[in-house]
Amino acid sequence: MTTPKPEVPRETPAASAAQPCVRVAGAGPAGLAAAIRLRLLGRDVEVHESSDRVGSRWCGGFQVLENFSEEEDILEFLKRSGVPVGFRNRPVHRVRLWDPKGIPTDFESPVSLGYCVTRGSEPGDLDHSLWEAAKALGVNVRFGSHLPASEADIYAGGPRRVDGIGREIIFDAPLEDRMSVLLDPRLSPGGYAYFFVFDGRATLGMAIVRDFKNTNRHFEEVQRRFADLEKVEIPRAQATNHHVNFFVQHGADSGPFFAGEAGGFQDYLFGFGMRFALESGILAAQSVASGGSYANRRDRMLLPKQRICLFNRFAYEKAENWIPGYFVREAVRSGDLRKYLRSWYEPRGIKIMAARMMERFWRRGNFRKNVRSLCESPHTSN
Ligand SMILES: Cc1cc2nc3c(=O)[nH]c(=O)nc-3n(C[C@H](O)[C@H](O)[C@H](O)COP(=O)(O)OP(=O)(O)OC[C@H]3O[C@@H](n4cnc5c(N)ncnc54)[C@H](O)[C@@H]3O)c2cc1C
User: Fold this and answer.
1) Is 61 near ligand 1, meaning CB less than 6 Å away?
2) How far is the CA of 225 from the centre of ligand 1 (A)?
3) Higher model confidence: residue 133 or residue 254?
């Protein structure tokens, strides 16, 4: 994995005494990106983090900072926004997709499909690196400080309820690097399973959006399946449980600006929420600094993509028995996986119109009932 040299943005205008210090809740990607951007725009910032360190939700496992939902390269976007790319990252050019029958298809993309990063509290992890960059700019991060939304200017506290569950194990694996994704609705209902190996470390996980009470059984089956498909011995390892939150935020600018997953910014299809978190944090910061409307910017710049994600999730769950096969076939036919993935996220008029209708049900809770997800209580023990 590449660990770029820590970069610190050069211009840091002195904060104006006339402007109050901006209070940000949450030192995840959204809150820290907001804090960095605010400092670069000359504002004093205080970030409150309820945990005793950054990245405490994570244990150093791999996540993918996706690079297909927008044309602009995500690392270029961060640099352009002044957010230093000091975190360890590896461009992803190869992916293996397994269909439910256990047939693999290998894809190669000349343009990176994403950047594999690690999440956690150690140097090089995304969260740690953003914290270092914020500190270097003079952001005051107060650990062990829980800031209620009512007292924050920007609230970036992460998922607020359980719409989906992720379970992972991390272990040493003396194997060749690989990025393998298994699309099988029987093993991971409404979601998928993944097995990433880089530099002898592996992350094996699954994401599901229903049948939470059988999480243990699903995860055992996922491990058995990957052991068989990838010819790998999977050691007994402590699994970690996480949750994700999908919702569409509405309303004008009363109260704090909600950024990241706390503001409903998630890729409801695959759960690639980091790009959204960084983008919405930066947008919230710009709105605070300029005194402009966040709601207007959010609705113009992020809501169309959110609506597309909502449509994608609906389609994925409604047709989940045939969609994995269709997805792989169409990706092969297109000859360009990045372009194909991008086509799923393009804000096409018809999809947006359909999503607007779905949203009404979604907000009333009927959407969730309709797709049978989210109805059962989560089982989150190991
Ligand atoms: C298993 C799993 C795998 C994932 N894989 C990927 C992936 O491969 N690619 C991808 O893009 N995304 C992935 N995601 C999603 C991604 O991790 C999240 O979307 C992203 O972390 C959201 O960032 P955030 O800043 O909004 O929130 P978080 O990263 O959750 O950070 C929120 C922070 O706020 C703190 N906090 C909460 N409330 C308060 C408060 N009131 N006051 C102060 N501090 C508070 C929390 O302690 C936390 O540190 C995955 C998620 C899961 C669960």
Assistant:
1) no
2) 28
3) 133
Q: Is residue 33 part of a domain?
A: yes
Pocket test for ligand 1, best of 70, 130, 142, 272 (most atoms within 8 A of CB): 272
224-274 pLDDT, tens digit each:
999 999 999 999 888 998 887 777 777 667 789 999 999 989 998 889 999
Question: What is the domain range of residue 62?
Answer: 22-89+117-161+248-301
Query: End-to-end alpha-carbon separation of the chain, Å?
Result: 30
User: Cα(336) to centroid of ligand 1, in Å?
Assistant: 30
Q: What is the mean pLDDT of residues 127-155?
A: 97
Report helix, strand and coil shares of the chain as percent, to nearest 5.
35, 20, 45
Asked if residue 217 lies in contact with residue 206, where contact means CB atoms within 8 angstroms, the answer is no
Q: Please name the helix (run of DSSP H) or strand (run of DSSP E) that holds residue 264, with its range, or none.
A: none
For residue 329, give both structure tokens: 């076939």
Residue 282 belongs to a domain with what CATH number?
3.50.50.60
pLDDT at 120 over 90: yes
Number of domains forming the structure of the chain: 1
pLDDT at 381: 34
Q: What is the pLDDT of residue 14?
A: 56
Beta carbons within 10 angstroms of residue 4's beta carbon: 14
pLDDT band at 36 (very low <50, low <70, confident <90, very high): very high
Q: Is residue 375 part of a domain?
A: no
How many angstroms from the chain centroid is the CA of residue 5?
Answer: 24
